[in-house]
Structure formats: C-alpha cells, structure tokens
Amino acid sequence: MSQALWQFKAEIFQALGHPTRIAIVEALGKGEQSAGHLIEKLGLEQANASQHLSVLRAKQLVISRKEGNQVFYSLRDPVLIEVLEILKRYFYSHVSQTMSMLKEIRAEQVAKK
Amino acid sequence: MSQALWQFKAEIFQALGHPTRIAIVEALGKGEQSAGHLIEKLGLEQANASQHLSVLRAKQLVISRKEGNQVFYSLRDPVLIEVLEILKRYFYSHVSQTMSMLKEIRAEQVAKK
DNA sequence: TACGCATATTCTAAAGTTCGAATATACTGG
DNA sequence: CCAGTATATTCGAACTTTAGAATATGCGTA
What we know:
homodimer; DNA-binding; 113 residues; globular; alpha+beta; three-stranded antiparallel β-sheet
C-alpha cells in the first residue's frame, strides 16, 4: 500500500512544484475565480495559464465549473491552503538559512538572462 | 516578495515530488537513519538513493551528519511529517475519487512496459 | 449563420529530471 | 600503505516539463 500512497503524495507535490501553480492555488484560496481573472491578476500568458490549470485539474487539486463563456476554478479541498500556510511558517522559521538559498535562486535566474 | 516565496515553496514541493523521496522523508520521520539503512529498508539502488538524498540536501529538507564511515540523515524540520500526515488524510477523505486516478497511473505504467 | 470572446489543445524547441553504470572520494582496520 | 566498505559524483540515454506560437472548441449575441 505504501507504494501507492507514496506515488499519490508525490503526484500532488509535483503538481504544486511550480511557482505559477503555487500562485494559482494561493489565489484560489481566497475563493473561486474565473480563468481570465487569474490570468490578469497573475500576469500570465493565456495558453500557459491554461496548461497549468490543466495540471491542477488532472491531479484534482482544483474543480472547474463552466458558466456561459467562462470557466470558474476553485480548490477542491481547503486543506491545500493549510499546507501552504504550514510552509509559510516553515519559511519564516528558517529565514536566515533560507535566504542564502533564495539568493542562489535569484543568482541563477540572473545568470540565465 | 510573493514571487520569491512562490519560487521557494515550489522548490520544496518539487523536492518532495518523487515517490522515492517521499519514502525517504517518511522513513526519516521515525528518526535519524544512515544512508545504508535507508537503502536497505527501501530497496533502492545505491547511486539512485544518493542522488535523491542529494536533492533533499540541496533543498535543505534533510540534514546530514558524518560519523566515521557512514552518513546519517535526519529531517531538518518535523513539520514535513505534519504535511505528509495531512496529505494522508486528504488521500483517504477522497479515496473513491482518487482511486480512478491511481488506476490511471497504474494503467499508464503498465502501458509503458 | 457568422462573429467575437473565453478557454483549451496541439506543436516544437529548450531545459530539466530520472535511472543505472562507471568512477571517485573518504574513512577504517590491518 | 593497502584493501574494503560506505557514500557521492559524473555521464549518457530516455523521458518529462516548460513556454509560447498557432490553432481549435464552445458559447453568446446579432
């Protein structure tokens, strides 16, 4: 059984393993939003946003509801927000050690440009 | 700020986004273990295990301590176990909806062989 | 029906991840 | 110093993920 559970958990983490998808999930934590609204709020490319939403849908982290022209997304289970909150605390409780990591991340990003 | 925080969270989720690494973290939840012990317990290839441990180390989810010949690993913060526990509950509270997902995963794996 | 808007899908190239095999490092006991 | 054990790193091939461009679908309204 463990095997399946590991796989399941890994799939969820992987689905959350992209900054844009984190941003989407956090935005949805404040309530249901249309795809268009998310795109505007987060400044995303339409196609790209749609792809990320499709990942979240495939892993069933979000639910979509069609209303006329638009598609409204919401979190399937607010427990996700709980998890993100825990990580925020984790982040702050290790700030100093984390900072060097963030600096590295930024340095890499700059280096790429 | 959000940007960096999203990136940071995404990095952590990604580090957890592999079944083997989940298994390692869960094993470490029961206390410090040597690399060799983990390898044996989880039935991993030595090099593969070492690579996964290196990912966890890079994201600072685990701490390593050298003792003579061996390297002992432990979780940097037990909050990770808390997150995994939450996900276990999540898993069971959506079992029926999840089952079809797991079946698909297995079907894909079979299809690949 | 035809148009326009919102969203999804498909495609391609680039980048990143994974595995196992081979090799390297580093410590211990003889 | 040598051999043996424990762990890490490097390499290449297969696979996956990503972004953006182009295209498709689906709905509402004229």
